[in-house]
Amino acid sequence: MVRTIQKRIIIEKQANIKTLQLAPKLLTLEPKQAIYLNLTGDYQTLDFCSAWNKLWQYVKENKLFSAGIEHIVIYHDDPKVTEADKLRTDICLVLPKKAVPKGEIGVKTIEGGKYAMFLYQGSYEHLSAVYDTIHTKWLPESGEKLRNYPCFEKYLNHPDNTALEKLKTEIYIPIE
């Protein structure tokens, strides 16, 4: 892939993870209501911790804590085609209870529909290569077609209390 940034040409080689199990679960999801913060900038340098803390503060202040809260991040842009400072990300908490927008915290619906869900175990630093493997190997071989909706990740555990190689992330790829 070749892209031009500030009159320089950068050639990027797609990374693949040969050991990734490319047997996703095909799921049909119901829409989910979430509170969220929108961040813009390089995925590698965004302050995810601060965003999660603000969302949890909102949950605490509004007495919305309950079982079943999901940690989800929606990535709106492909860093291979979008300039790093323009990458858009939504940091979300899916809540079983109804929430209302307040300040910089919004409420949105995460679209339901058909998804291919890949379970990845390992450090977050390899997620870019996981996406490359999904898009360059699984997608062309599967016969599935992408739906016009962003991919998202659901985090099943937390790096504060889980070894990096044991982190579990569900990657949801929207398909027709």
UniProtKB/TrEMBL annotation:
PANTHER family on file: TRANSCRIPTIONAL REGULATOR YGIV-RELATED
Pfam families: GyrI-like
Classification via InterPro entries: AraC_E-bd, GyrI-like, Reg_factor_effector_dom_sf, SmbC-like
Domain AraC effector-binding: 22-176
Protein name: DNA gyrase inhibitor
Transmembrane segments: none
